[in-house]
Write a structure and sequence with these properties.
By secondary structure, the chain is of the alpha+beta class. The chain contains eight helices and seven strands. The strands form two sheets. The chain has a five-stranded mixed beta sheet with strand order 2-4-5-7-6. A hairpin with a 2-residue loop joins strand 4 and strand 5.
Length: 313
């Protein structure tokens, strides 16, 4: 009986140990098998996260087996085809519509300005003509901005060349010097070293013009507008600071969106279309750079741009 009892204990120990070992072996095997089965799902999930409005040309590779994953990949690729088609046609429509509107608006502006040259116009008629001219001017600027933004989005690339950024900044600042003096705004520029960047000179000029134009429009009388250019690691940093009314915290992330205005009534009165900063951000991104906005409500606004000093096309 003692021998039988010992053998029973030994068998129980062996059974328990076998069950534990079998459990862990089964767990490891199940994990490996599940990982192998779910590998296509992870690949699809990773690629879906990578696809955005800028990378709609990417597609999910179809697996060899004609199973549910193959059907899912085909369905997602079909959806991406429809999205890409919609995005491209939307951009083409905006570009074509803006192009078609440009000439009629220019003709109307010239006609209004010509009518204002006549002597003896009644005061009310003259005021109406001036208001219409201002409206047409605002529409013309909106159309030009839409054309510029559409061109940047549809082409996705610009001509790059080496050019001295310091000279460009100083030239643009001098163009705004008279406008700053008319509003009694202290316009200063400080450029450290001779910063040479690889990019589009005309597009960077557009960035500087948009930022300085905003800095003058949304500034206080006898305020300050300051632009600083200096090296920051492997980048060239451009800072544009103005003593404007500031931007509330809830609006700072949205100021780069199309047609978004912080103060809509004031922006319309000043001729703003809500596309200036959108174009700035797009140009900076095409130069592989980044843009940041800092502000203190009711006090100041500062926009900082980082451009690589050496960028490959």
């Amino acid at each position: 009986l003692e021998d039988i009892d010992g053998e029973i204990r030994e068998q129980v120990y062996l059974i328990v140990i076998g069950m534990v070992v079998s459990f862990f072996v089964l767990l490891i095997v199940s994990y490996l098998v599940a990982g192998r089965i779910l590998k296509p799902v992870r690949a699809i999930n990773d690629l879906v996260h990578e696809i955005s409005d800028k990378t709609l040309d990417k597609r999910i590779p179809l697996p060899r087996s004609k199973d549910e994953f193959h059907e899912l990949s085909e369905s997602l690729n079909t959806m991406f085809d429809r999205l890409q088609y919609s995005f491209e046609h939307q951009k083409e429509f905006v570009a074509n519509a803006s192009h078609e509107l440009k000439t009629p608006l220019a003709i109307l502006r010239l006609s209004m300005e010509e009518n204002l040259q006549y002597d003896g116009l009644p005061g009310s008629l003259q005021r109406n003509l001036v208001a219409h001219c201002n409206t047409l001017l605002r529409l013309s600027r909106l159309v030009e901005n839409l054309l510029s933004l559409s061109a940047l989005e549809m082409s996705g690339k610009i001509d790059f060349a080496y050019f001295p950024l310091t000279n460009l900044v100083q030239d643009v600042v001098e163009e705004f010097r008279i406008l700053a003096e008319e509003k009694s705004i202290d316009l200063t520029v400080r450029c450290e070293n001779e910063n040479v960047v690889f990019g589009s000179k005309e597009q960077i000029r557009r960035v500087l013009i948009n930022l300085l134009d905003n800095g003058l429009k949304y500034n206080q009388e006898e305020g300050e507008l300051r632009i600083v250019v200096r090296q920051y690691g492997d980048s060239v940093m451009i800072q544009v600071f103005n003593t404007g009314p500031g931007i509330p915290a809830e609006d700072r992330e949205r100021v780069f969106e199309q047609f978004y205005r912080v103060e809509k009534s004031r922006a319309i009165a000043l001729g703003g279309s809500g596309l200036g900063l959108t174009i700035v951000k797009k140009i900076v991104e095409l130069h592989s750079g980044s843009i940041e906005l800092q502000s203190k409500t009711g006090s100041w606004v500062q926009i900082t741009i980082y451009l690589p000093r050496q960028t490959s096309v």
